[in-house]
């Protein structure tokens, strides 16, 4: 009779999981928030230039913001773990730092993945298919978030249906709300 071994997370695995978590979160957030923003602008105007500017601004600001947030979050977690090890194990600070995940790797992963995720809705909404741009954006966002939800679930060892549905539902609500706001404010301003 075999007994199951406890699941041990090594430092190397923790570093990979930290990077993966930051990358998946960054990509999802890049897709959803940029799609929401460009759909909101598209609800207010048909000016492709204005939509493109808003999308690129969202890509730049979001990438920097996500990277900064990841860096601060992972740094705070690491600092807390180091302080705990120093207090409880009596380890000197210089030795306690060696065994923790890198805030910089999480920040870089988040920055790159947010930027890459943002590109899809920008291209979909500003492409040459202006008559169908909202539908093209919704379709591309739903497909891409279904893929990221599926991949994240499989890598994490979870069943994929719930993460896929969650990703898709959040994106649809985000885009619908932003488009509605754009339509309301676009009419009010015009």
TrEMBL record:
<dbReference type="GO" id="GO:0030026">
    <property type="term" value="P:intracellular manganese ion homeostasis"/>
</dbReference>
<feature type="transmembrane region" description="Helical">
    <location>
        <begin position="50"/>
        <end position="68"/>
    </location>
</feature>
<feature type="transmembrane region" description="Helical">
    <location>
        <begin position="20"/>
        <end position="44"/>
    </location>
</feature>
<dbReference type="GO" id="GO:0005384">
    <property type="term" value="F:manganese ion transmembrane transporter activity"/>
</dbReference>
<dbReference type="Pfam" id="PF01988">
    <property type="entry name" value="VIT1"/>
</dbReference>
<dbReference type="InterPro" id="IPR008217">
    <property type="entry name" value="Ccc1_fam"/>
</dbReference>
<feature type="transmembrane region" description="Helical">
    <location>
        <begin position="106"/>
        <end position="129"/>
    </location>
</feature>
<dbReference type="GO" id="GO:0012505">
    <property type="term" value="C:endomembrane system"/>
</dbReference>
<feature type="transmembrane region" description="Helical">
    <location>
        <begin position="135"/>
        <end position="156"/>
    </location>
</feature>
<keyword id="KW-0812">Transmembrane</keyword>
<protein>
    <submittedName>
        <fullName>Unannotated protein</fullName>
    </submittedName>
</protein>
<keyword id="KW-0472">Membrane</keyword>
<keyword id="KW-1133">Transmembrane helix</keyword>
<feature type="transmembrane region" description="Helical">
    <location>
        <begin position="168"/>
        <end position="189"/>
    </location>
</feature>
């Amino acid at each position: 009779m075999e007994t199951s071994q406890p699941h041990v997370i090594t430092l190397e695995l923790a570093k990979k999981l930290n990077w993966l978590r930051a990358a998946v979160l960054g990509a999802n957030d890049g897709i959803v928030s940029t799609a929401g923003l460009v759909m909101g602008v598209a609800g207010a105007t048909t000016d492709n230039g204005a939509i493109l500017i808003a999308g690129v601004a969202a890509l730049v600001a979001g990438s920097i913001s996500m990277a900064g947030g990841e860096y601060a979050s992972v740094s705070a977690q690491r600092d807390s773990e180091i302080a705990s090890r120093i207090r409880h194990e009596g380890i000197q600070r210089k030795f306690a730092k060696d065994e923790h995940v890198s805030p910089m790797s999480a920040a870089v992963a988040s920055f790159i993945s947010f930027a890459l995720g943002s590109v899809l809705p920008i291209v979909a909404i500003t492409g040459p298919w202006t008559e169908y741009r909202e539908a093209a954006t919704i379709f591309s966002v739903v497909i891409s978030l279904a893929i990221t939800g599926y991949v994240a679930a499989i890598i994490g060892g979870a069943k994929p249906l719930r993460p896929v549905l969650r990703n898709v539902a959040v994106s649809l609500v985000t885009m619908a709300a932003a488009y509605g706001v754009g339509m309301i404010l676009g009419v009010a301003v015009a």
